[in-house]
Predict the 3D structure of the following.
Amino acid sequence: MMELISYVLLGSWVAVASSSPLPAVVTESGSGIAPWAGSGPSPEVNAADSRIETANTAVLASSVPVGTIITSCTQPGVVALTFDDGPYIYTSQVLDILRAANNVPATFFVNGNNWQSILTDENQRLIRRMIDEGHQIGSHTWAHPDLTTLDRDGIISQMTLLEDALIQIIGRYPSYMRPPYFATNDLVLRTMGELGYHVVNADIDTLDWANNSPDLIQTSVQRFRDGLNAGGSIALSHDVHQWTANTLVQAMIDEVRNRGLRAVTVGECLGDPAENWYRTN
């Protein structure tokens, strides 16, 4: 059953449905980047302070707000397919279906160390492939924590650890992020605003994590159809699940095309030029 969590946002209460159960964080030694274990602010927090000034400059180039929850596209006739929690062993198959088979772009909100470390040779290759094939990469934090349980330093560390890893892999880091479990509060949103992040949730949740079997995955296909019927335009799935890769991805693409819609990245669905999707400092 989907857990309903209430958060205070701009002085009013909003209900947020968590998108998946809380998983155990998978750790991997020798990955090259690890959370700060010393005393005082982490090196990532200190580095982030210098990035805040850069972020403020970058924000001026985009019409998309930062530090504010975005749930739907602003451009007509488009749908953004988004995938969370990777890279993982099924990500390559998802990429094959998207571009090689259908020439469709998507957005991947990636973690640094969730199901696997982003810094393995194979996962670095997958991240570079996403860029090479025209997909958009967004941040889903380093280790997939509920950000509302962290203080400001902890939130910043979750973002800058992944920023540093992506700079190492592709020479840039994203200006778009998705909070794990859609969990935000005033502190999380204020910190995302300081760091220059567009905060993207979704208005179609396929619940593929709960339907990861040959029989149940059709429930997720129907949830996608129902979401489109209700006017939804940003769809949440996960590239870490077998039956998402085997069935759901192609079914979503077929449904989008059958309705005369166009699948695009989150940035494009918000009318944001591709040069605004990443930063290099």
In short: The first strand starts at residue 4 and ends at 9. Confidence is low (pLDDT under 50) at residues 1-39. The chain has eight helices and 13 strands.
